[in-house]
Fold each of these.
Amino acid sequence: MFDFQYYAPTRVVFGRGAERRTGQLLQELGVKRVLIHYGGGGAVKSGLLDRVAASLDQEGIIHTSLGGVVPNPRLSKVREGAALAREFGAELILAVGGGSVIDSSKAIGYAVAEPEYDVWELYDRRRTPKACLPVACVLTIAAAGSEMSNSSVITNQDTGEKRGYRNDLCRLKLAVMNPELTVTLPPYQTAAGCTDVLMHTLERYFTQGGNMELTDQIAESLLRTVMKNALILRDNPADYDARAEVMWASSLSHNDLTGLGADGMDFVSHGLEHELGGMFDVTHGAGLSAVWPSWARYVYRDCLPRFVKFARNVMNVEPGASDEETALRGIAALEDFFRSIHMPVTLRELGVEPTEEQILAMAASCAKGAGGKKGTAKLLYQADMAEIYRMAL
Ligand code: NZQ
Ligand code: ZN
């Protein structure tokens, strides 16, 4: 097992009706002025925003709000939110929504704490922040894991770049998680969310070194649990226990727990997807399932023991005549699973058909964003990334 640090400072309050306690929980943090940030109106229509606002009112917490965050959240909205938060004197940004709203809130947090530079400089790797305004959330979708991650992903609408930035400063103070709130999700978003949850652990699983018995068993158990419950939700979207399992998994899959002791994280599939998101505005989880099988077939020979372990312990396939065959069976089994929850496994199924010029542009941008190379299963360069996009067509 390699050395590691584990930092998971977020207070999680989980369960039915949890959002009604938001005001009391923020009051315990000593917060008096809050910017409530939300997305496309789903939280308004469902009455969630009113319930959250009422719980803040009850505790005498003054609040203002800003909606309009879109999936693949935009830098322009971050700037608008930062200006409002400063003018209002917000002490905390409360995200009511999913990963997009939380990420926009984290970016606003950075921008408000250090107004002397443009926040995009963080995502562009030109600067390291020293502060971030506190952020909390009422989560409405199990997917990105942003509620416990140190990451935020923002799209610069002027350049088409979608970039993630990781720093512990943005980790949430509080995550309020009521699985009931996710029942209104369209089936496609539920499935894309489950895919993203799986991917955050898979990106940590395919590494070269480390003898991680406990971490691996946590990771494998999480993967099996999410797959099982994704199928339950496909057939019965209102199943509370399945919603709860998937929601808790979303947090644990991206708070680093499932990779502790490994020699790094792969995250090439994420890098490839972020380019698709920046260029074609696709749904994150669906973009991941569209590239993962091609990535896996491109790299599996260089990470064979882990692919065999995955095939046996997670996908439960019969061993083939060789390790290579067993690994390929495991990849095909996960591909079949994605199909079974109606997720795309090619770019065409995702609804995009990039030209060769667009493939080269995405590969160049992906490599640039990663400092030239990326990957723990196999170290990949720009030409490899372009080849995976071609395989995924
Ligand atoms: O805006 P509303 O109206 O809420 O609509 C959203 C949105 O259209 C809708 N939705 C959310 N909760 C709902 C609901 N609709 C009905 N009922 C509910 N309860 O679902 C759509 C997707 O929401 P979004 O927040 O975009 O989903 P997700 O949580 O998947 O976040 C995706 C974003 O997070 C980034 C992705 O790249 C993408 O930009 N990621 C962030 C990470 C992080 N910060 O750690 C890690 C991830 O790997 C990922 O990259
Ligand atoms: Zn993701």
Note: The mean pLDDT is 97.
Amino acid sequence: MTLRSVIAGVGSALPKRRLDNAELAAQVDTSDEWIVERTGIRTRYIAGEGETTATLATEACRKALAEAGMDATEVDLIVLATATPDQTFPSSATKVQALLGIRDCIAFDVHAVCTGFLYALSVADAMLRGGNARTALVIGAETFSRILDWEDRTTCVLFGDGAGAVVLRAEDTEDRGILATRLHADGRHGDMLYVDGGPSTTGTVGKLRMKGREVFRHAVVNLADVLGEVLEASGLTPDDVDWVVPHQANARIIDATARKLGLSPERVVLTVDRHANTSAASVPLALDVAVKDGRIKHGDVVVLEAMGGGFTWGAAAMRF
Ligand code: UT7
């Protein structure tokens, strides 16, 4: 028997309010031209009153469950990746559980910032293959707008809010499912991308701070390396890959990483223009876009990658 974790459904959710570069340029010293040229970002979505990480996550889960043709009561594991939980505790995963009306299941948050979804997927995959659960909701959900310094043009133009979720099911199959995941962290770089507050230090939530140029440099190297690792672990070459779904931080990072591996740009899913960087939500949001518009189909070889604060970085390869 080959027990594999298969994606049975994908869903996503965005806040109602869309904020474009021109509106931002009226608030801080920036321009549409600078943002597009340096990042590829044109718009982002910003959570409003009543919209939180958990409510966006729940909406994404409902859509993923509907696509899988499943009821929430069948879920026995929820792993939610976020760096912007509704509260310090309880976990946002248990909030989603309650909102979905699930009485009893395993539910916890995973915190690896922009790499969070890859960490969550890897943990859920191991738990499903280990027999701890049969059906998981794996979620990336964030409301970074609430930890941005809206007067700091070097960061506030880059991020947005949203959520993406997949239903992951343990199936006895050789044809589909996650083939390999690879995760990394190097805490020596904690001061390159961080939040200057927290419950155990300042007692405040804090704001995001980033040394963008240094993060950029590390991102291209780390992402190309981990993509190479996950392909090798799956017995694949870059030519076997149908779709790359990268973390959507910057179109230039995505291009440079694909070029380093010899992956053609037509096979890379790009959504940073419309969503900006939604941290842990960016990979499942982009995956949902490419599944819904018909690009990613069952049987395709899909690789996911992300890199973020910590530093953390990781990748996953699957036959969708
Ligand atoms: O998700 C986690 C991973 N995060 C990332 O991957 C982000 C990685 N970093 C990046 O994407 C890029 O480094 C940025 C988009 C953040 C910045 O692009 P850059 O090409 O590295 O620009 P820079 O930081 O070198 O800044 C160039 C210039 C500076 O002016 P001077 O010093 O050359 O006069 C900045 O002050 O651009 C200026 N600048 C801006 N100008 C207009 C910085 N932000 C802005 C802005 N509008 N929003």
Note: The pocket of oxa(dethia)-CoA is lined by residues 30, 34, 38-39, 114, 153-154, 157-158, 193, 212-213, 215-216, 219, 249-250, 253, 277, 307-308 (CB under 6 Å).
